[in-house]
Each structure stands twice: as structure tokens, then as C-alpha cells.
Amino acid sequence: MVRTALDWIDAELAKLTAAGLRRTLEPLASAQGPVVTVGGRSLVNLCSNDYLGLAGDPRLRLAAAEAAHAEGAGAGASRLVAGDLAIHGRLEAALAALHRTEGALLFNSGYHANVGVPAALVGRDDEIFSDVLNHASIVDGALLSRARLVRYRHLDTAELALLLQRSTARRKLVVTDAVFSMDGDAAPLAELADLCDRFGAMLYVDEAHAVGVLGETGAGLAEALGVKHRVDVEMGTLGKALGAFGAYVAGDGRLRELLISRARSFVFTTALPPAACGAALRALEIVRAEPERRARLHALMARLKAGLTARGFDVAQVASPIFPVVLGSEARALAAAAALRQRGFFVRAIRPPTVPRGTSRLRVALTAGHDEAQLDAFLGALDEVLPGLPRQDP
């Protein structure tokens, strides 16, 4: 075999395999839904972010096809060159209406938004205050901004208050997930807004896992807590509860104008394809017209929370369709996922660095398309699987 400059990768892959940390792709042979086909088997899907069950909805598929037929398969350029299509403006107007803001700006993904927006707001003379469990994209965006990154303990507003009080930065930006993607708990947005008012900081809330799920109209956690008017930057995604693809930032019109000129992840990328925008527009109509989807999802959340609590799992703080079944070691999480698959359930093991070492888990996610029988069967399968898992490392 000819040696190459990439031979070192073999040893790295072996290390990942030995540590139980190597990732693999598992293509679905079906559309997203409460039941999917994986490896030739039909499995109950308990690890998707398709919270309202819209990703496979025929209405979104048709809307995507119609948008592609009308405006093309791709945008062809960045928005600032020749890729600013009419459907982008229609979608931004619909998103601003959902959030009751002056404007909204599309990004190609939640990652694009979170890595691009902070650097447009703060720089070397500034500080970003970030919950220690914020999504990796938020951390990356903070580092790219070149502002000083200050991380506070999870949900610890007392520590954040002390850090803000000590800050002498030119500008201060507090950034938090609304719903934390691996624990399913919610940020104390009212308290964070109080601190931002007190210390003159901006508040950036990532509503990725809350849009469509929380709030009277599905606008997210800030709406549910009655603090929308106190959030400076609201980021949301189109690829989770809305079943499409892409992301956006909603806020003041002047914020939108600044991001158009300074958010590098907006300026230097080809715009979203029309099909994704068409599907998202249809999803927003469904979210507005069918609140019963959220009601059903919340009923299922209550049922699963009761079942997991009865089995000794700490899910008291869960405020979303995301339930962490924490098992400890990588080996235990992998073994549980494999055993549940044998019993007909598709749920993935989540391991470091996605979660802290010693907290490997199953991340169980519900959608409005699930039914009570599927949840009860999953809990029964969990009862069968848990006693046979490897012992927890000391």
C-alpha cells in the first residue's frame, strides 16, 4: 500500500472506535415520520427534530415542488449578487409576522446564523456571555467574533449577574439556547432579560428547538414566557418543527440591515433554494392554522415525562419534546440503542463531545405524529433493556 500524507487518520479512527466515540451515518430509506425504514427495517423514530411531523407532509412536498417550478432549483448566487429571489422576501415577511418583529433575515442553517451573527454585533473590545451548555455553533460563533468568551454555569443567573457586573467591555452580548438540545430544559429568559436591562447587555436567544413547539402561536420560548419584546436577537430554524431547511434571525429593522452588510455567513454564501423556502412558507401556514398539532405534542410530552420519571430518570426540568435518558458511559448508551433497535425503536446514543463525559445518553425526541401506543411500547422496551446494560464505570 502506498503511503500518503493522510496515513495518520487510521490511528485516529482506531482511537475513536476503541473509545466508543466513532460516528457512523445511517441513511433512511423513507421520508421522515414517526416510523422510518433503516437498514431494511421499519422502526419507530424517536430521534428526529421533526417535532410537528411536517417534514414528510404532502402539503410541504407540493409547496416545495411548486416553488422549484416557479423560481428554479437553486438561487444561483448570494442574495447580494443575483440570488435575491421573490420567495426569500415572502418568507422573511412571514417570519417577521410570526415573531412580531420589524424584520427577519434568512440564513442557510442554524449553524450559519450562530457563527455569523455574533461577529456582526461584537468584536475584540467586547464580551460574550454564554451558557456552558449552549450549542456548539454558538461557541464557534463567539470564538470567531474575537470577543472575549465568558461561559457561565448552566442556567445560573446568579453567576451571570456577577460576571456582567465585573465586565468593563464596550459591548456585552448574552447568548443562550431557548431549549437546550441535549437536555430539553429551557432558559430563564425573564431573568436573563432583567440582567441585560440592568447591565446594558444585548440578549440573543436561539429558538431552534422551540419555534413551532412553544408559545401561543408557536413563536417559541420568548413568546411562551411573555418576554418577546425584551429579546434583541431571535434566531430560529426552518428544519426542525417547520419541516423544511434553513434558518433566520428576527428583530429590529436596523438589526437586519446591519446583518446584511456584516454577517459573513450571509454575505458569502449562495442563498437558500426556492424549494426549501416554499416548504417553510407552507409550514408557517399550518402552524398558524393547526394549533392542535402543538396540543397533541404537549400531551405526548406529559405522557413520556410521567413514564420516564416513574423509571427513575431525572426529566423534571424538561420543557420540550427532548428527553435525555442519561445512562453514563459510552458503552451503556451504545448497548441501549442497539437493544432498543432490536425491539423496533430507532434512537441514537449521544456521546462526548456532544455531551459531557460520563453523561452519555439516549436523546429521545417526540413528534406530533407519534401515538400513545408507541410511547408505551418504548417504555416497556426500556424496562427490558436496562437490566442487561454493561455496568457503569466507577
Q: Could you outline the blueprint of secondary structure elements for this entry?
A:
Blueprint: H1 8-18, E1 35-38, E2 41-45, H2 58-71, H3 86-99, E3 103-107, H4 110-121, E4 127-131, H5 136-145, E5 148-152, H6 157-166, E6 172-177, H7 189-199, E7 202-206, H8 221-224, E8 233-237, E9 247-251, H9 253-262, H10 264-267, H11 274-289, H12 292-310, E10 322-328, H13 330-342, E11 345-346, E12 349-350, E13 360-365, H14 372-385
Parallel strand pairs: 2-11, 4-5, 4-6, 6-7, 7-8
Antiparallel strand pairs: 1-2, 3-9, 8-9, 10-13, 12-13
Number of domain modules: 2
- Counting DSSP E segments of at least 2 residues, the number of strands comes to 13
Terminal residue distance: 42 Å
- The succession of helices and strands, N to C, reads HEEHHEHEHEHEHEHEEHHHHEHEEEH
Strand order of the largest sheet: 3-9-8-7-6-4-5
- Give Rg in angstroms: 21 Å
Question: How would you describe this protein?
Answer:
This protein has 394 residues and is α/β, with parallel strands linked by helices. It folds into 2 domains: 23-51 and 291-388, Aspartate Aminotransferase, domain 1, CATH 3.90.1150.10; 58-289, Type I PLP-dependent aspartate aminotransferase-like (Major domain) (Aspartate Aminotransferase, domain 2). It is built from 14 helices and 13 strands. Strands 3-9-8-7-6-4-5 form a 7-stranded mixed sheet, sandwiched between helices. A 3-stranded mixed sheet has the order 1-2-11. Helix 3 runs parallel beside helix 11, helix 4 (110-121) packs parallel to helix 5 (136-145) and helix 12 packs parallel to helix 14 (372-385).
